[in-house]
Amino acid sequence: MNIRRVDFAGSGVSDYIEKVRLLNAGETKRYYIITYGCQMNVHDSEHLAGLLLQMGYISCDNKEDADFILFNTCCVRENAELRVYGNVGALRELKERHPGLKIAICGCMMQQQAVVESIKKRFEFVDIIFGSHNAQALPGLLYRALTENGRCMEAHDDEYSIMEGAPIKRDSSFSAWITVMYGCNNFCSYCIVPYVRGRERSRRSADILTEAKQLAGQGCKEITLLGQNVNSYGKDCGEISFAELLRRLNDIDGIERIGFMTSHPKDCSDELISAIADCKKVSRQLHLPVQSGSDRILKLMNRRYTHDDYLHLADKIKTAVPDIALSTDIIVGFPTETEEDFMQTVQLYNQVRFASAFMFAYSRRAGTPAADMKEQVPQEVKKDRLSRLIELQTRCTTEFHKRYIGNVYPVLAESVSKRSSRVISGRTHCGRMVSFEADSSVIGKIVNVKITQLKANTLYGVLVQP
Ligand code: SAH
Ligand code: SF4
Ligand code: F3S
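Above: the input record for the complex with iron/sulfur cluster. Below: its predicted structure, written as tokens.
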């Protein structure tokens, strides 16, 4: 596959940024971004915020104050889409009261032409639409929306390109996302992502390492590498392997923690497991979605491993990295799933005892093979299986968390609790959330916390001296 690599500085986007700046000159304009979906979307929104900042916009805390509202959408499950429709619809009145307000919708939902048509028909007041491959189209579209009133500006580009050097406004100064690859080639039969995010394409390792070094220079302590299937990093363009990338990142001074998501079990190689074991900065939480414990369902899902393959892999990882916290994603109620299939998922759960899990009821996505399978599972059955699994996971998490009580762990202090300014939340190296008393000066630092109790699956601790 031919990937077009574009440098932001030479892309012509800056011309539109300058034009919008001039248009807004003298006036403070405010933006409000609502992001749905996965971390890739959260990170894309950081880039969109970076562009808006350069155009002279500042962020605001509520929609009523905004001159520009942007929805960055997700279509992985139906309820994510329904929320977008509901929330965009609710803006009709605001737009009537504030005609200068510009409204944009971007992201994965906008990669589907039928959805774009329906949005345009239902919400004629939307000014701008662009897809996930087109963040850099925002300045041009905004310029046109501000100067040619009255119709919806659109940009869709299915060409595969990777842009380097684009502006960014990161949400955190000590913990940063770094994209290592875009797209997905796996085509799991239930999943819309490969259709909306395109084929796998990796960034150059040199660009990733430069970004990580720059972040370290700015005081960033933690990086999280992003990709739909990070362990196939590099395969599309003859780059170094993901394991080697981890080793090189591990050598960067100043970076103290390295996380990554998501890994596909079929690509979780011995080389990667050794790299995790050797690289002490690499997170001791490994997210390894299993999706189902039934071989028949796994085959229909096109996951390319079996129940036993997964168990074997989980054992290998736990042996090589004993302090690992394994987490997973599960779908219940995939078409044709019987009670027996579901019980195999429960069995796998009891065998692996995940530290945590995201659990979903199967959601039919038009255009994917599973959507056309006969025998869809009734909603009540899906709901019942989901609640049984959630109950099981709650017990597993409690059991897993108990082992931490009484021990001291380095915790990266992340935020001040909403309930009390003296309570701080942070995460251990294996991704467990811990609350402890301290003042806000610890935010962004790694401090030692002794875990003292577990309440409703939240760990509590006290600050101890190093
Ligand atoms: N690339 C990642 C995650 C992609 S989407 C991976 O392969 O693990 C995140 C999770 O959403 C998936 O792991 C899956 O559990 C869930 N998901 C995807 N499509 C779904 C659908 N149609 N219905 C319900 N859950 C779905
Ligand atoms: Fe979807 Fe499967 Fe790709 Fe993950 S690996 S994004 S679940 S197709
Ligand atoms: Fe959703 Fe797109 Fe992520 S569909 S899960 S926002 S890649």
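Notes for the reader.
The CA atoms of residues 401 and 459 lie 7 Å apart.
The first helix runs from residue 13 to 24.
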